[in-house]
Every structure is written in C-alpha cells, then in structure tokens.
Amino acid sequence: MSDLQFKRHRRLRRTPFMRDLVRENHLRMDDFIYPLFVVEGEKTRNPVSSMPGVEQISLDYLPQEVDELLSLGIKAILLFGVPNDKDSVGTGAYHTHGIVQEATRVIKKHAPEMLVVADTCLCEYTDHGHCGVVANGDVLNDESLELLVKSAVSQAEAGADIIAPSNMMDGFVIAIRQGLDEAGYRHIPIMSYAVKYASAFYGPFRDAADSTPQFGDRKTYQMDPANRLEALREAQSDVEEGADFLIVKPGLPYMDIMRDVRNEFNLPVVAYNVSGEYSMVKAAAQNGWIDEKAIVLEMLTGFKRAGADLIITYFAKDVAKYLQG
Ligand code: PBG
Q1: CB count, 10 Å around CB of 58?
Q2: Reported ipTM
Q3: Local structure of 193: helix, strand or coil
Q4: What domains appear along the chain, each with residue ranges and CATH number?
Q5: Under a CB-based contact definition with an 8 Å cutoff, are residues 72 and 319 in contact?
Q6: Which residues hold 5-aminolevulinate 2 (predicted)?
Q7: Among 17, 69, 236, 300, which residue's Cβ finds the most Cβ atoms within 10 Å?
Q8: What is the predicted pLDDT for the residue at 2?
Q9: Is the C-beta atom of 37 inside 6 A of ligand 1?
C-alpha cells in the first residue's frame, strides 16, 4: 500500500440527520421580500401571463392579500404601481394620491406590522417608459433626481417603511437621503438597487408593470453585464452616500457579484431573483421538465451561499408552503 491517504468526505453525508447537522446555509421566511403589483380600479386580480401565479391586484383586494402573506410568514413586500395615466415626467410616481401611495396607506392601516418597501422609479409612470426625464433622446440625470426625491418623500409620507430606489441615476442615494432627512424621515432606511445590470431577465416584469421603454433601452443607466469591477464602484458610492441595504440584480447570473459585494461591504446584501428567472422555472415546471420545488429551494439556497442576506423573490409564497410542508 502506498502511504498516500485520501479524505473521507462522505462521513458527514451518511444520514439525513447528519446532513442537517453540518448544513451551512438555510432559508428562513424572515429573509424574504415579496413583490406586489398594484393596479387602479377595483375587484381586479389580473393574472400576468408571462409570470404564472403573479397578479396585478387592485387596492380593495390588498387587505386579504396581506392577510394571506402574513399567514405564510412573509413580513415584507416590495410595491410596484401600475397607474392608468402616464405622462412625460411620471407625475403618478410622486402624486400624494398615486397608486403606490394609496396602496401603502391601505396596507399600513390594515396591517401596521407589515414592512412596506416602496420601489422608487419613474418607468411605470412615464409615457416613454424610461426611469428618468427624457430630452432629445437622452435620460437626464440631475433633472430626474429631483423627481425621484419627490417620489421617495411622498412614499414615506404615505407610510412606507423602506425606500428602494431602482432608477440607476447617479447620486440617487444621497439625493434621496437628503430629501428624506429634510422632510423629517431620518429614520427611514434606503434599500439601494446599488448594482443593477441592463438585463434581458427583466422582460416579464415589464409586462407585469407595463414599463417597457418606448424607444431605445436602459443601457445608458443600467450596467453592462460583462462588468465586475464596475459593480464594486457602484456599491462603494452607494455606501458612501448612505445606503442601508445593497441590492444586486438580477440574481442567478450574478452570484459572483453578490459574493464580491458581500466580501467588500458590511451592509445587508439583497439578492433580487428577477422576473425572467421566475418565469423560466415556472415554464419548465409546467412542461414537467423539472422538479419545481427542488429547483426553487436549490436556487434560493444558492443566493444565501453566494452571500445574500435577504432575497426579493416572486417565489416567496411557494417557499413558505415548502418550508411549512
Ligand atoms: C424598475 C424596475 C425593474 C425591475 C424592478 N424595478 C425593471 C427595469 O429596470 O426595467 C425588474 C424586476 C424584475 O424583472 O423582476 N426600474
């Protein structure tokens, strides 16, 4: 016999209890944020055809929806508004009676403990579908900041617990921080979409939120999927500007970036498991090609292993049922 020894890794995999004992990462309902799309009108639950199981919900149905989420152990929701009227400057995003502001009031009145995270962006509210103000085909940075600050302040006024700016204008964190502080909302944290790539994985979301750009694309403000160092620069500036959470988006193809951000910074890191990632799994599952439950749990556990503390996912309700079962 040679004196070369090999290691017996299988000792720790022998039985289910043994595997439970040495498992490094876990999914907990406390870590999930569930996105909700709110529409105007009443008695409406519009299924989003490209996202099976996801609906646009009218205000009057929000209390029952929130009760269901709470009963599943979901403690935070991310609100997106789908307004009837759009204009060139996205007035609906910062109107006192805008759809997200009204939805926030309804939810906080019904269930004050539910954490409302308000997505702060203009794309659902502008007729051109871009995340800022447009002039001569350009998305203007500093001019857009003013409107984003107004949106964030009106969301806080309505009772939002966390402001989540997703617009990718430079300086949005510091602008919104100052705006919130001046308006008396020093205690409201900012969950920044710090690292957001210009991704084809947002396709189904744009059906759900009716926010497809009417010309061009978002590549002058969202990041190039080929870049890694740029993600650290984006995250760094948001940390310096006062962000309280750092989102990395999308999730699956960017787990390396999640790990980089986790290693470099000490704020909570949030993975956004986006619409395209959801729809791919649902489509394959509907065809009987994959085991949906196993795939979803493996994918979400992968985010935790990659360093995410929190996960924004359309699968949150499914996971609650899997974990309960
Ligand atoms: C708004 C916004 C988008 C998403 C979240 N906030 C779309 C986009 O940037 O085009 C995408 C979420 C998803 O795909 O699930 N700017």
Answers
A1: 19
A2: 0.96
A3: strand
A4: 27-324 (3.20.20.70)
A5: no
A6: 275, 314
A7: 300
A8: 72
A9: no
